[in-house]
């Protein structure tokens, strides 16, 4: 194993409060475009006559809902949503009892799909589209299969996308929860994002530890602030560091002797009798 990866694996094995910040490159490795799809921005403008940022804005949605949903289906939901070894590896950290949370701005719910439990999706999810009237929820499969603008199957009005649009406020409660978790982390594992990315910039000020790790496809400006850095295929690196993770051993409760159990049962019976007497009085 690469010496840096071996060091990171050892560090995780000695930790009980790992927080993962999962970035856009994790989604791109899964073959998905993301909401803004910046890597194909030129093609989007050629096809739609509008920039990617214009289309995913709240103003555009309210005025050109047909075009918005065409973009949603073709660009955001460009392929089947499926997890990669990155997501499975993070689940292994959870199974070892060492993961506190996953924080992400991506919207495909891939970490939840992999079985991770405490996932904070700052910008929402393509699996949480809602009817603005009855609040019924619809997943990405419903959006993809709809003819034209997807509408509520009961109210027959257009659905609201489950993710935050440009011009809308991010849920402050989620931001606060994520910030608190970063503050308590002993290992901050940043996967698929550079330290100068919008995702990381907000949270780094809350981390005061000395075990900040960056895993990314390539180095970005500002990454030298991390304590450890590794670049390459995200799935390969994450698979490597989560091999043979040690499970956190929780202290066992002291077993009572037969005599202690018997005395405890007697005490409970006595207390119940006293309660009944008090009630009769």
Question: What this model shows, in words?
Answer:
With 281 residues, the chain is an alpha/beta fold. The chain folds into three domains: 1-31 and 82-124 and 168-254, 3-Layer(aba) Sandwich (Rossmann fold), CATH 3.40.50; 33-78, no CATH class; 127-160, no CATH class. Helices cover 43% and strands 11% of the residues. It has 13 helices and eight strands. It has helices spanning 3-13, 24-29, 41-48, 52-55, 58-63, 65-76, 85-95, 110-114, 140-145, 172-184, 198-204, 234-241, 258-280; strands at 18-22, 99-104, 119-121, 129-130, 137-138, 187-191, 212-216, 228-231. The strands form two sheets. A six-stranded parallel β-sheet has the order 3-2-1-6-7-8, sandwiched between helices. The chain has a two-stranded antiparallel ribbon with strand order 4-5. Helix 7 packs parallel to helix 12. The longest helix is centred in the last third of the chain and has 23 residues, at 258-280. It is globular. The termini are far apart. The model has no long low-confidence stretch (mean pLDDT 92).
